[in-house]
Description:
The chain has 5 helices and 6 strands; from the N terminus they run H-H-H-E-E-H-E-E-E-H-E. With 163 residues, it is an alpha+beta fold. The strands form 3 sheets. The chain has a two-stranded antiparallel ribbon with strand order 1-2. Strand 4 (126-128) and strand 5 form a beta hairpin. The chain is globular and about 50 Å long.
Amino acid sequence: xxxxxxxxxxxxxxxxxxxxxxxxxxxxxxxxxxxxxxxxxxxxxxxxxxxxxxxxxxxxxxxxxxxxxxxxxxxxxxxxxxxxxxxxxxxxxxxxxxxxxxxxxxxxxxxxxxxxxxxxxxxxxxxxxxxxxxxxxxxxxxxxxxxxxxxxxxxxxxxxxxx
Length: 163
């Protein structure tokens, strides 16, 4: 599969995480804890955004956040359901990652007025700059992913926070 451009691209996708890990799970060795798990976090998640990597993926069976239908509400249901005993005390919201605007696909960056992502973030991490182009303030963004759902062209993604 490495002999063709398409094969190399498929292999790169197979090795790349499909999304960031659930909140409060960052930094844990998910391949150690989650491989033989029944994954109660997937059913406990109220917005239903915790999914498992498919069998053909290198990270098969490990949970990730899929923001295509909703964002993380930080309800802690995944933590309460998790059998490994993660502590999520306090009021601090974990940093899942950072939202990124793909300027190639974002229509606002191509002189078309669109403010779908601006104003949906309760942390006010996305603002408009000159000519109403969206910009993400990385100091305010925690990677909740709510903005991803509202983008009509999927120009927003959340990159996992580095450990």
